[in-house]
Specification:
Elements lengths: L2 H4 L12 H9 L58 E5 L13 E5 L5 H13 L3 E2 L7
Parallel strand pairs: 1-2, 2-3
């Protein structure tokens, strides 16, 4: 058999994410809560700065960026994996039921053991689904 026949054929996604969208995802800043880097008690999750003299609210140069509508991506590409598939987290073989190989890609959950991960991987490949983190069999 030739080298091309030996290689697995990966399913194609129904949606192709443009390179421009992928580039803007990389360029989008990490939006952090004001002063969360300074105080341990503050989580880094986004909160809008509301202080009277807040440098962040005033958008002073050198301070983190504020969340604005212009950073949002187009609706049809929002939440998609860069391959163009909708990512589905799978914990067992039963969760593969009802998934469309042209739309969905499977990610095996991290808390799944090796034996079960291999079983999920084999079942997904048999159904023609793409596995984003395939389990390595011995």
């Amino acid at each position: 058999m030739s080298e091309e026949e030996q290689r697995e054929v990966k399913p194609k996604a129904a949606v192709k994410v443009p390179k421009k969208v992928l580039r803007t995802r990389k360029e989008r800043p990490e939006f952090v809560r004001q002063e969360s880097w300074r105080y341990r008690r503050l989580e880094s999750g986004w909160r809008r700065p509301r202080g009277k003299d807040s440098k962040m609210r005033l958008q002073v140069r050198g301070w983190p960026h504020l969340v604005k509508v212009g950073y949002r991506s187009q609706r049809r590409y929002r939440g998609l994996h860069p391959s163009g598939f909708v990512e589905v987290l799978v914990h067992n073989v039963g969760e593969l039921e009802g998934l469309d190989p042209k739309v969905h890609a499977v990610r095996i959950a991290g808390n799944v053991g090796r034996r079960k991960a291999i079983a999920i991987n084999e079942a997904a490949v048999a159904k023609g689904l793409r596995v984003l983190n395939p389990a390595v069999s011995e």
